[in-house]
Design a protein that fits this description.
α3 runs parallel beside α4. This protein is an alpha/beta fold. The longest helix is centred in the middle third of the chain and has 26 residues. It has a single domain, classed as Rossmann fold, CATH 3.40.50. The chain starts with 6 loop residues before the first strand and ends with a strand.
Length: 251
């Protein structure tokens, strides 16, 4: 399927921030790959919503923790949408709230496999398609980090926070490495956002509990995060790389 539209891959796009980014990207003219791990039904709903608005989208399964599946994801996009111009590394996992003294190495490895290794492999595959020496025309990558990288998530998710700290460093290093290729690499750090992820950590009401500690006195929305992500793909951001936008209500 060839198209003159720019092509974007959004990982972990079946729900939450990823779904909001996919919808907004489609509205702004991108052909979008909605990646998911298990929730095919949810990914199909996002694709259907995009198509209902006249956009172009496909759903492709791939577990970010599995290098071979990531490679197959990019190959599927090559075949069905064309060469990728934009990548949003949004897929991320966390586990039940826990202190470091109670964590085992297997848990930490699971977090890092998706949040760091998976993101890096996605970046690799994107650069192999975007860089002019590989026949590309440049592009842009946005990593969805977290203010946890700066705050550390003590008593809850230090392992998750550490993975996001690594993602921030990847953003800085890669941005300098591929700048001459016409590829910009930036990151958005969401704060306390209303998504299903808090339930995954064992506390569905976490946003409301923390709202009073946030300067803006409320949790954020996925659409507010998506707007920041998409700014990095705009012409206005053409001179911006290795940068971060905090969408955290001032925290």
């Amino acid at each position: 399927m060839s198209t003159d539209k720019k092509v974007m891959i959004v990982t972990g796009a079946s729900r939450g921030i990823g779904a909001a980014v996919a919808m907004l990207a489609a509205r702004r003219g991108y052909s979008v790959c909605v990646n998911y791990r298990h929730r095919r039904d949810a990914a199909d709903e996002v694709v259907a919503a995009i198509r209902a608005e006249g956009g172009q989208a496909i759903a492709v399964a791939a577990d970010m923790a599995d290098e071979a599946q990531v490679v197959q994801l990019f190959q599927a996009v090559d075949r069905e949408l064309g060469r990728v111009d934009a990548l949003v590394n949004n897929a991320g996992v966390l586990e039940t709230q826990m202190r470091v003294e109670d964590m085992d190495a297997a848990r930490v490895s699971r977090i890092l496999a998706t949040n760091v290794v998976g993101a890096l492999v996605c970046c690799r595959e994107a650069v192999r398609r975007m860089a002019p020496r590989h026949g590309g025309r440049g592009g842009a990558i946005v990593n969805v980090s977290s203010v946890a990288a700066r705050l550390g998530s003590p008593g809850e998710y230090v392992d998750y926070a550490a993975s996001k700290g690594a993602l921030d460093t990847l953003t800085i290093g890669l941005s300098k490495e591929v700048a001459a290729d016409g590829i910009r690499v930036n990151a958005v750090r969401p704060g306390t956002i209303y998504t299903d992820m808090h339930a995954s950590g064992g506390e569905p009401g976490r946003v409301d509990r923390l709202a009073s500690s946030i300067p803006l006195q409320r949790g954020g929305t996925v659409d507010e995060v998506a707007g920041a992500v998409m700014w990095f793909f705009s012409e206005e951001a053409g001179y911006t790389t290795g940068s971060f936008i905090e969408v955290s209500g001032g925290k």
